[in-house]
Amino acid sequence: MHFTIQRDAFVHSVQHVNKAVSSRTTIPILTGIKIEATNYGVTLTGSDSDISIETFIPASDGEKEYVTIKEEGSIVLQARFFAEIVKKLPGEEIEVAVQDQFATTLRSGSVVFNLNGLDPEEYPRLPQLDEDNHFQMPQNLLKDMVRQTVFAVSTQETRPVLTGVNLEGEESELICTATDSHRLAMRKASVETKTGAMSLSNVVIPGKSLNELNKVLEDSTELVDIIVTESQVLFKFENLLFFSRLLDGKYPVTKNMIPDHAKTELVLRTKELLSSLERALLLSREAKNNVINLKTMNNSEIEVSSVSAEVGKVTEKISCDTMEGEELRISFNGKNIMDALKVIDSETIKIRFTGAMSPFTVQPTDHDQMLHLFSPVRTY
Amino acid sequence: MKWTEMEVEQPTVMTMLRQAVKKDRLSHAYIFEGMHGSRKEEAALLMAQSIFCARQTEGRPCESCVECKRIAHGNHPDVMFLHPDGDSIKKAQVEALQKEFTYKGMEAGTKVYLVHQADTMTASAGNSLLKFLEEPASPTMAVLLTENAHFLLPTIQSRAQRISFAPPLLSTRTAYFQEQGMSPASAGLLARLPDETLANYEEESKEWIVQGRALVIQLISEVQQRPQQALLTLQEKWLVHFKDRKELDIGLDLLLFWYRDLLSVQKAGGEFAYPDQMQKLESQALSITEQEIAASMQFILDAKRRLRANVNNQLLMEQLVLHLQEGS
Q1: Range of B183's domain?
Q2: InterPro entries given for it (chain B) (predicted)?
Q3: A26, A121, A247 ranked by CB distance to B103: nearest
Q4: Residue with the larger pLDDT of the pair B61 and A166
Q5: Is the Cβ pair A124, B80 closer than 8 Å?
Q6: pLDDT tens across B88-145, in order?
Q7: Which of B164, B199, B230 is the last residue of a domain?
Q8: What is the pLDDT of residues A327-341, one digit of tens each?
Q9: Same domain, B110 and B223
Q10: Are residues B216 and B157 in the same domain?
Q11: Distance between A56 CA and the closest CA of chain B, angstroms
């Protein structure tokens, strides 16, 4: 392999790929970055076996020439050193050449680095993509969907499948669900499919991977291609591919958990409730249970209170926009509600209770693309 | 070709594995049991290779394709290894392994994990492996490598197919050590010791083992004839020579060989670890019953087990010597 490449483009790519490389891997080859040169350009791959990032630098993009390929080939170089070296090279261009036994020379300006590479044959292969389950959505929508669901995934390993976000798709509607069995966050969106009908079920993407993906996503309306394969999911950007492995196991069916009737319905301003919960949690945080009590009052007001045996108690009254249905006293985990309120961008929310001992839902009032479900806490 | 090499060394095992791969009748879990030097690690790798190898013939891997190479170098993402962290395999390690297995395979298909020195698993680690061993979410195969399958939890033993590796032939090993320039007497002892204990002593081992051997003989005769002296010798010589836990383990092995020899003398047969001490062995064999020998051997084995449980070296040896005196 032998090529020269523009330093800036190369550094940028290497940094992207380096995000996926972990120093704590058990597989020795994954400490490296794979570099592959073809006549079309240079491909870089980094992976920690859970996520893999692949970037592509085209030989030229019409205006500018980035890479001059002298000989095709590939090599794996230690990421820790390689990323640092590339960043600190002085010249505008970098020349990369591989000799026998995977010995690699990096040349830039008057600097020469000789690195010992690894056999590229040993690098894990990324999955073959079939275009069956292939759809598109704007980057900012995907970013929102990730933000609005991933906070609800379970952090406990007892049920591993709950540490991920479940994707389900029918026709052109995509549903993301995350739950830790105490709360559930669901977000719907319509997407553009490439093949017409899309049918996804039980595609569970680890929450950790989505957090990484969020770092790559930009706030633009540019489209992302999403391709789901047997064992991995691919997010395809221009010149960057983000792979994540999927979680194994059956995701619980969440559809019939969501109650379709309500005994008590409240409409509230999001900000008001959020800040009142924050205040109430100041005390219950001490007791570490985050329990908040909510009581409906007569004049369409609710009372939010929290008691901590050692510290004291707090009560606050909030007036609702509307209140319908039966009277109610309920206790719940305030921290969970706060997490949800933080990701709801709407001004007002609708809370639907089905009784003091059964789950309740929180939804924005201006659209029905989002739903949060919580189970109450028993306090006696 | 390693496979063919292994077939010469472990014919039964390798044929069994080959047939299982060929007929696609692999068990979900195996226990590979065998002495150090029985090359069970290599057999486990070869088996993993033949599962993944695209060009395997009759259950034998090609050992030259990408898959085979990656497995041999530990670079295959779907073949995982678990080594003891320090002295034992901890629960956290098993949990990390399980976490890895909650993901779907990197390259789809079966996933394989090899647990080295599985007998060092702590009880809680073993228990958390258990459930996972029995009900993996995806097609998986576990290989537990151990020198002593009895140290594994009985519940694990019953859930895996046990494959016993034949110990390397004593005569071949003795010949090997003699070639290395050992005297016949110490070569015989070395050949009986497990491989790994010797790994660190390669250079100094000659002198060391000869001295150790002399100490064993001295200690035994003192246990027999001058009981008061034995504890002194222990303090002055034995514990100075067999300093740390590993060395003491070898010392106990040497002691064990002596009693095994005694038994052989009584039963008139077998190969001797101390062939030049026939006179002593014979005279002692006359004054001791078979039950007493068995009891003594049990004491030594107990001591070996306690050694692993971090018992103080000196106390351990003193107790052992007292036990041996009572028994004889």
Answers
A1: 170-327
A2: DNA_pol_HolB, DNA_Rep/Repair_Clamp_Loader, P-loop_NTPase
A3: A247
A4: A166
A5: no
A6: 888 888 888 888 877 776 666 788 889 988 888 888 888 888 877 877 767 888 899 9
A7: B164
A8: 889 999 988 999 999
A9: no
A10: no
A11: 21
| pLDDT of B238 | 83
The two tokens of residue A48 are: 């920690």
Strands A93-98 and A41-47: unpaired
**pLDDT > 90 fraction of chain A, expressed in percent and rounded:** 34
Name the closest residue on chain A to residue B105, using Cα atoms: A231
Measured over the CA atoms of residue A270, residue A276, residue A282 and residue A285, the dihedral's sign is: negative
3-state secondary structure of A258: coil
> Which distant-in-sequence residues (6+ apart) come within 8 Å of B194 by Cβ?
B35, B36, B37, B147
Three-state SS letters, A158-189: CCHHHHEEEEEEECCEEEEEEECCCEEEEEEE
Both B88 and B189 in a single domain? no
Assign B328 a pLDDT band (cuts: 50, 70, 90): very low
Could you tell me if A154 and A50 lie in one domain?
no
Taking the Cβ of residue B23 and every Cβ of chain A, the question of whether any pair is shorter than 8 Å is answered with no
Tell me if chain A has a CB within 8 Å of the CB of B116: no
What burial letters (b/e) apply to A206-224, b meaning 16+ CB within 10 Å?
bbebbebbeebbeeeeebb
Neighbours of B94 (CB within 10 A): 22
State how far the Cα of A240 lies from the Cα of B66, in Å rounded to an integer: 26
| Chain B hits for A243, Cβ within 8 Å | none
Q: Which residue of A has its CA nearest to B128?
A: A158
B104: chain A residues, CB-CB within 8 Å: 230-232, 245-248
Strand arrangement, sheet containing A173-179: A199-206, A164-170, A173-179, A183-190, A370-374, A360-364, A348-353, A264-269, A322-325
Q: What's the ipTM?
A: 0.70
User: Is-contact B89 B118, C-beta < 8 A?
Assistant: yes
Q: How far is CA B102 from CA A47, A228, A361, B132, B238, in A?
A: 18, 18, 30, 10, 51
Domain edge (last residue) among A100, A122, A144:
A122
